[in-house]
Amino acid sequence: MKMKQIPDQSFWKLWNISFGFFGVQIAYALQSANISRIFSTLGADPHNLSYFWILPPLMGIIVQPIIGALSDKTWTRYGRRIPYLFVGAIVAVLVMCMLPNAGSFGMAVSTAMIFGLFSLMFLDTSINVAMQPFKMMVGDMVNEKQKSLAYSIQSFLCNAGSLVGYIFPFVLTGIGISNIAPEGVVPDTVIFSFYAGAAILILCVLYTTIKVKEYPPQLYAEYHGIKEDDKQEKTNVFKLLVKAPSAFWTVGLVQFFCWAAFMFMWTYTNGSVAFNAFDTPTVQSTVDGVTRTVLDTTSEQYNAAGNWVGILFAVQAVGSVLWAIVIPMFKNKKFIYSLSLVLGGIGFISTKFLGDPYLLFISFLLIGCAWAAMLALPFTILTNSLSGGHMGTYLGLFNGTICLPQIVAAVLGGLILKLFTPEGGLAPEINMLVLAGVLLIVGACCVFVIKEKKAEA
Question: Options 1.20.1250.20, 2.40.10.120, 3.40.50.720, 3.90.550.10; which CATH number does 239-457 get?
Fold first, then answer.
């Protein structure tokens, strides 16, 4: 029996499938730009900041494959993917209303930290639960001819959501909401940004839930050529890894340096910009009999820098969009991949020497070049090297090359920062951005060991 073709969809139907991604990405951007600021405000030692960042990639590596496997087997009157994104969004909304208030409930510093940590864990888990179904619905509901357009729409909504999330605190400060708060309390600009992000998230997901009707099981089976007597081949992950094409491992090596670099950016940009570009004052803090020098998180300068980090991340997103237009113009994928990473590396290293907040736009535009390449080229090179029936499994395993380096960087970040910190002195977080630049340049060199032969299986 001939397999039915998935019909072409109008632009607006494709838009509706991914629209909720806009809200999810606002939540993700708020988390990326403000987590270090929130935990520093609660009293976290800069040397311990990276440990808070272990949770997001750890949740990603655990949750994403589970949601994929569960939703593959789920059929309800509301669809197979939509129930997961709806539940994920509801949990994310609740946690977004709690996380920035960790310092507002009168708890001791250690209790507030633990509350914040558990909130972050639930937030990242729920964002992952909500995010994965959008990617899967495109695979389920869009034909091969339109997939490029569908993923382009998703990419646009992803970047647009990031921009909105990044600039929220800056905009709220501009309209008069307080950007400073007592010691240990997160400023209203950040709290209200999370509230606004939560409201937009649930409205976007409700829109997708109402507008999108997933295919029922029988029609889905006809569109995807699934027969009733088809038996799922039990996949031995270890055998697949042994037979993996060399591109899987060599691109994975490049990924290691890239994602470790960006983990350092998310963790240490806030402190770096606050001290180097905003002249944030320092204070002496004594914890367990140990006196250390830290940035004054109650100061106007520190919180202005926190807002500015959102603007810089937004500039990076713009740079990424612009560079994504340039990348396809190069036939030699390895050359443009390597060049993009070198430009990003220069961007990171330049942050040490560009002390003016506006000059940092140059740094983050260059960092956006690396980000664009990291999102586009690894999966292109890998899928071009895959053949046979295990592409989905390989792509799931490849997600480990994104999450594992972030976990390694989060575990080692504080230890590396201690090597740069004089006894009792201020932790020079800017050195971690320079290290991120070095890692990207090493990754750029590793691009040339990538082999693009087809897999046997």
Answer: 1.20.1250.20
8 Å CB contact between 272 and 374: no
Rounded alpha-carbon distances, angstroms, from residue 399 to 126, 244, 251, 303, 357: 18, 14, 12, 34, 34
Which pLDDT score, from 0 to 100, does residue 250 have? 87
Residue count (the chain): 457
The counts of H helices and E strands in the chain are: 16, 2
**What's the confidence (pLDDT) of residue 177?**
95
CA 154, CA 213: separation in Å to the nearest integer?
A: 18
Given this model, what pLDDT does residue 290 score? Answer: 75
The predicted model scores a pTM of 0.81
Dihedral (CA of 253, 258, 262, 265) sign: positive
First to last CA, the chain: 26
Nearest Cα neighbor of 126 from 59, 221, 171 is 59
Q: Where are the domains of the chain?
A: 10-225, 239-457
What's the fold here for domain 10-225? Growth Hormone; Chain: A; (1.20.1250)
How confident is the model at residue 300, as a pLDDT?
A: 94
Q: How distant is the alpha carbon of residue 436 from its chain centre?
A: 16
Give the separation between CA 157 and CA 15, rounded to whole angstroms.
Answer: 9
> Same CATH fold, 239-457 and 10-225?
yes
Count of alpha carbons within 13 angstroms of residue 353, beta-carbon side: 9
Q: Which pLDDT score, from 0 to 100, does residue 455 have? A: 46
Residues 185 and 41: beta-carbon distance below 8 Å: yes
Cβ atoms of 447 and 368 within 8 Å: the answer is no
12 near 149, Cβ under 8 Å? no
| CB contact at 8 A, 15 and 153 | yes
* Angstrom distance (rounded) from CA 283 to CA 289: 16
Gap between the Cα atoms of 448 and 333, Å rounded: 10
Average pLDDT per 10 consecutive residues for the chain, totaling 457 residues:
77 90 91 89 84 82 73 74 86 91 79 86 83 76 79 82 93 94 91 95 91 83 65 60 78 94 95 95 78 89 95 94 87 92 98 95 96 84 64 69 91 93 90 98 94 56
